[in-house]
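Below is the data:
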Amino acid sequence: MSLPARQEVFSLEDLRLLAALAETGSLAAAARQVRVNHASAWRRLGALEGRLGVRLFDRRRTGYAATPAGEEAIAVARHMLAELDALERRLAGRDIRPSGIVRLTTTDTLLALVLPVVAGLRATHPGLVVELVTDNGFFTLTRRDADIALRPASAAPEGLVARRLGTVATAVYASARYRETRAGDPLALDWLGPDDSLSHLGSARWIADEVAPERIVHRASSLLALAAAARAGIGLAPLPCVIADPDPGLVRVMPPLAEMATSLWLLTHPDLRSTARVRVVLDALAEQLKAQRGLLAGQELRGL
């Protein structure tokens, strides 16, 4: 007499939904995170609670709140997902072929330096596909949001393999016409500043300390947007020299300031550092950025 097949209680998709719902507190947001529609997520959660015979979340006006049973299930789900992520990284680290997908995250200000690397890799390693994610915040490499990060930061995050590539300098710029028609103390002119999403930048802290609030006439969540606003003649903007010096529509008003400078880091997870496809991209980026250290440090001003 054969025993009945054991019914699966938790699937990998269930674990991911539990973790996402605990993180977001919203079924709609959790569904987007695990890439299913709202109705599918609702049915999956209901089916899971039905199989377990216990409610995992209380449905409130403010969102989904875990019950005591839910908190236990969430803890196990997070642990198992972390173990699976770690296994995936270890197995990926044994890949000796320079082919496949490499996810690279960087800021929009560094795209002009990164894209030539991507183009070069297409010619030398046609089996590589570089997925480029531009975001001004740090991705969590330990959760495989990306394989490599190229980031300006005062210090490298703990737990990652980090290579310092040099200094990213920032100076103050304006359009040539704005500067010609407005003489005098730069601090008495109109200023363009980063918004709160970029408050971690040295330039944001410098403006907060040195520029009167009434002189700040425009803010933006992107340094490329601030460069465009300065080019349009709205005011002065602190900008990385790497994007502003090559721009014929901008001139320096103040030299690079030490308070605004930061380091440039090339980052990956320890489990991926020896993976062939990741190693190829890391080395190509390091070579390109090494050749551009003068531009990054603000030492290649036009006309010098």
Q: What stands out?
A: The two ends are 89 Å apart (CA to CA). The chain has eleven helices and twelve strands.
